[in-house]
Design goal:
heterodimer; A: alpha/beta; two-stranded parallel ribbon; 4 helices; 26% strand; B: alpha/beta; 7 helices; 4 strands
Chain lengths: 163, 171
């Protein structure tokens, strides 16, 4: 059984801040330390609940929530990165469930996850201009120039047979 | 012009020997088409829940001969129920193209009819499925009630009566 005091003591080298709020352990870190922190959390926190991002306007706040099924304890890990060309190490090799979550954050916010096995767009389509959940993304309300992309039979077969 | 099952039975009784009836082939074919509309479902969002409710016991679409098909190749019409995204549009078009003639499309709900609440400031919504496939009937509502879908299906069935089924079959 890990306690908050013990965890923050063990991981203090990888933290830039920590607090306990509403029973949840909230940890803040930075892009260089996050990988070591997540590796340290992996044995106890086996269930990856969420990984998402917030565009605050000045910077991107990437945020993940982990759950310990044995201890019934949630931990939040958050860090900030610059809005353009942000890089983070992947966590998808630690928690397989983060593979698609990271693809989503890449798709919608443009965050690059180094070491991700298959960092493609997941919600929008190949060739989509920009990253739509960034605050400075300009939505084109005019559909008059929009056309359905024509797919050949071979393209569809390739799409379906891809793992 | 339309005939119902009751009328046919009554007419047959009057004919000596009972077994024969004279009718225009168009009328008979259109009556058959009207009485067995098989939609391919295109449930995309919350409208699909209302579509399922229409098919379930309370509204019982089956009593009108409306039976959902899981393949476009056996379908007469497509019920597009929900928000069509630009990523889904090519799939929708492809399924529509696989349906045999004559074929019809019902745009169910505001999203399918014209983008609905996603008309403004949406990066991925098709503002009306009529940009992708030709639409025969639009249903308003967000989502429409099952009665509205039934009304649309019955109205579509009635509209067959104006068509020449034989010409349609020849293409």
């Amino acid at each position: 059984m890990t306690t908050f005091a013990q965890l923050t003591h063990d991981q203090r080298a990888h933290l830039t801040g920590s607090e306990e709020a509403g029973g949840v352990w909230c940890l803040t870190t930075d892009p260089r330390k996050v990988r070591a922190l997540l590796e340290g959390l992996r044995p106890a926190f086996d269930y990856p609940e969420d990984l998402t991002c917030i565009d605050t306007g000045g910077e991107l706040r990437v945020f993940c929530r982990l759950w310990s099924t044995a201890q019934r304890q949630a931990v939040h890990v958050s860090l900030t990165i610059p809005r353009s060309r942000g890089h983070l190490p992947t966590a998808s090799d630690l928690w397989r469930g983060y593979e698609w979550q990271e693809r989503e954050v890449f798709d919608l916010f443009g965050v690059q996850f180094d070491g991700h096995p298959d960092l493609r767009r997941i919600l929008t389509w190949e060739g989509f201009p920009g990253h739509p959940l960034l605050k400075d993304f300009v939505v084109d309300n005019d559909d008059s120039s929009w056309e359905i992309p024509e797919q050949t039979d071979q393209e569809i077969i390739d799409l379906l047979s891809r793992e | 012009m339309g005939v119902t099952g009751d009328q046919i039975a009554a007419a047959c009784d009057k004919v000596p020997g009972g077994g024969y009836i004279l009718a225009r082939l168009d009328d008979v074919l259109n009556w058959a088409r009207e009485s067995s509309q098989w939609p391919v479902t295109f449930g995309l969002a919350c409208c699909a829940i209302e579509m399922m409710a229409t098919g379930a016991a309370h509204y019982d679409q089956d009593r009108l001969g409306i039976i959902y098909r899981a393949t476009p190749r056996q379908a007469d019409l497509m019920i597009v129920s929900g928000t069509v995204t630009k990523k889904m549009a090519p799939v929708l078009r492809r399924l529509y193209e696989q349906m045999p003639e004559p074929k019809y499309v019902i745009a169910m709900g505001n999203c399918a009819s014209g983008g609905g609440p996603y008309y403004y400031d949406s990066y991925n919504t098709v503002r009306g499925v009529d940009l992708v496939v030709p639409v025969d009937i639009y249903i308003s509502g967000c989502p429409p009630r099952p009665e509205q879908l039934l009304d649309a299906l019955i109205a579509l069935g009635q509209s067959y009566k104006k068509e020449h089924a034989l010409k349609l079959a020849r293409g």
